[in-house]
Specification:
mainly alpha; 293 residues; 58% helix
């Protein structure tokens, strides 16, 4: 069974949606099998070689991670298969006479020569850091931190792009559809498709697109469309300011002695009463924010 999850029924669904016959899929570039083999894949009798999966996904117009999800992080063999190479081809990729160096590394027998790492990383379309982490997994060593983890989205454009990619991986809504949903939420036309495009691309800046009081309504509509809390669209500075204001308000409602003690750097830290108040504040904020999908 390949490292990626393979579902014959899902393959059949994707093929029929593409209006491809089993024979046509088998003839697709990089797939290279006869119709009976595709039929066996779809019935679950056999499974395609892992290195064929990228070609199958391309032939069906699907993302590899969508059609064949991966369980866990990749090892060296996984990276090779995702790049669509059979193991015997890897000797050419690293400029060696044989595929044995890569075979040994994939089996956890002997690590790659340092000279091979940049060549193999380039062939697989990954960074050297990611290749080394995959090699560690082949040797049973688990990296302590995610490799090449993308930075968290910070700007409104980055957040919208992230939500579109993760919420609608295959059937992405148009700017006009998003604008229509926001306007339906507001009950009045507050944003156009061109304005949605501007927010999504960050050109011009959001401050030039969102007009005064309508800005809050637009962000609320976007949050409802994506099924998230409107707080997601606020900047770190805005969130920090709200937390500071909330704690200040909490101090006014209760005893200021708790805060004075913290300001003086008391040895015991916050007392139980203050901790209880903060916990209550967190619960209140979470309740207002609603569930985050």
């Amino acid at each position: 069974m390949p490292a990626r999850r393979f579902d014959g029924q899902e393959l059949r669904r994707a093929r029929r949606a593409r209006e491809l016959s089993q024979e046509a899929l088998g003839r697709a570039e990089g797939v290279g099998v006869e119709q009976p083999t595709v039929a066996k894949w779809e019935s679950g009798t056999t499974f395609p070689e892992p290195e064929r999966l990228p070609a199958i996904a391309r032939a069906l117009g699907e993302k590899l991670d969508t059609l064949f999800p991966r369980d866990g992080e990749p090892d060296l063999a996984d990276l090779r298969c995702d790049a669509g190479y059979p193991q015997k081809k890897t000797g050419e990729l690293i400029g060696a006479k044989s595929h044995i160096p890569v075979s040994n590394a994939e089996r956890g027998v002997r690590r790659l020569n340092a000279a091979y790492v940049p060549r193999l990383a380039e062939a697989y379309g990954v960074t050297e850091k990611k290749l080394q982490a995959a090699q560690d997994r082949s040797f049973g060593v688990t990296p302590t931190a995610p490799v090449d983890a993308p930075p968290a989205p910070r700007t409104l454009a980055e957040k919208l792009t992230y939500l579109l990619e993760t919420t609608f991986p295959s059937d992405r809504p148009t700017d006009a559809q998003i604008a229509a949903a926001v306007n339906a939420h507001a009950g009045v036309d507050v944003i156009s498709a061109d304005a949605v495009e501007a927010l999504r691309t960050g050109t011009p800046p959001p401050s030039e697109v969102l007009d005064g009081l309508a800005a809050g309504v637009v962000l609320e509509g976007l949050a409802e469309f994506f099924g998230i809390t409107p707080l997601y669209f606020q900047s770190d500075e805005e969130l920090e300011r709200q937390v500071a204001d909330a704690i200040s308000l909490l101090a006014l409602r209760g005893s200021t002695d708790d805060f004075a003690l913290a300001a003086r750097g008391g040895q015991g830290g916050l007392d139980p009463a203050m901790i209880a108040k903060i916990n209550a504040l967190v619960a209140e904020v979470q309740q207002k924010a609603g569930p985050h999908r």
